[in-house]
Automatic annotation (TrEMBL):
The chain crosses the membrane at residues 28-47, 59-78, 84-105, 117-137, 143-164, 176-195, 201-219, 231-251, 263-284. Keywords: Membrane, Transmembrane, Transmembrane helix. It comes from the Bacteria. The keyword Secreted does not apply. This is Uncharacterized protein.
Amino acid sequence: MLAFSEFFFFNEGSVRHFLEAPGAIGKALHISELILFYCLPGSLLLALEPMMTTWPRTILAGAFVGWSIEAAMVPVAYENVPFSFFWTSVSWHALIDVCLGWVVLRRIFGTGKTLTKVFGAVTLGCLTALWSTWAWADLALEAGQFAEIIAVGLALQAAGYLLSGRSAKQPVLGRTGFWFAIGINLACWALWAAIFLPVSIGLLVLATLNGLLLMGASAGESIQTSNKLGLHGLLPLLLALPGGVLGYWMIKITGYSNEIGELAVLLVAFGGILIYAIAAISALRDRVRK
């Protein structure tokens, strides 16, 4: 999740701090701080993972993970309401971090064929190059720096996949761990919500509706399978690096990186809201049928 939230996302603050960190030790310390930061939303991801049995349920559960990042850890969700309730909590974290990074790609590299893995890796690199354009101007990003950020993201992604090399149907957290993760996230969320009253009431209502839809959505057959992830199976992931660098130079040659970046943000932000709405409607229909 850290890889997609900060490095593949090209979060200006995190990427700038990493690039400007003094030496390998400084960079390692920065990554360590980020890992600690993501322990809280990561615990919620593991707690809710058993509920991610269909795409609507995965998106709805992923929304809670996104709000853990943007409303429990930092108050970004309250900066430009109501749009900030969805961007980046839902449109990026739920759809990209959780659905793409945690479910789709982890499944591909856990059970997919070699050609599927190669395609997935190259596509990830090209999409990251396309998305990164939104930060090129502010970061004055050069090809070497882009490659460095991609490499760090891939290392974190691979480490996360290796640590999760288990059956996705077996919950990591027991009953006590589940309620601890829920409780600590709610406590942090409540602290920020109290500070940002009354605008935080809107997010509380949205989260309540999201929870009701999640519980009412049809469980269906699990979209996750046994993910026996090993180092050998992750080797094709390395192809995301040359794929990303190639994408970087192809975009650079066009001379329209700023325009591409602006369009990418609009497509991801509003497209994510549309996909979330479709998932919510699907879950609502399931609840009505019950």
